[in-house]
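Lecture notes, continued. The same structure-token format from the folding unit now serves as the input rather than the output. Read the line below as a description of shape only.
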């Protein structure tokens, strides 16, 4: 059974934002930080630095209440620069 699935939105933004699937998987497997969503208790936010992308912080938003967990979106979070 896969460890996660991608929403249609997540598939689109990974390609549009040049986010490698390996980076997403790395952050999901070993996040440097996990946050809860401010507006909804379901989604979790996994954050991790991507050294091969200038050390930028990748934020992966996923729903852990479904199996396999569902990745909703991912983006480089400028507000987290230097905070991890």
């Amino acid at each position: 059974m896969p460890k996660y699935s991608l929403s249609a939105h997540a598939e689109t933004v990974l390609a549009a934002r040049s986010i490698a699937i390996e980076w997403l998987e790395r952050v999901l497997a070993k996040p440097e930080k996990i946050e809860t969503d401010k507006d909804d208790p379901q989604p979790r936010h996994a954050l991790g630095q991507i050294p091969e992308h200038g050390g930028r912080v990748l934020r992966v938003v996923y729903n852990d209440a479904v199996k396999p967990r569902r990745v909703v979106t991912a983006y480089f979070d400028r507000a987290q620069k230097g905070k991890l």
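Point for the exam: Residues 4-80 form a domain with the YaeB-like fold fold (CATH 3.30.2310).
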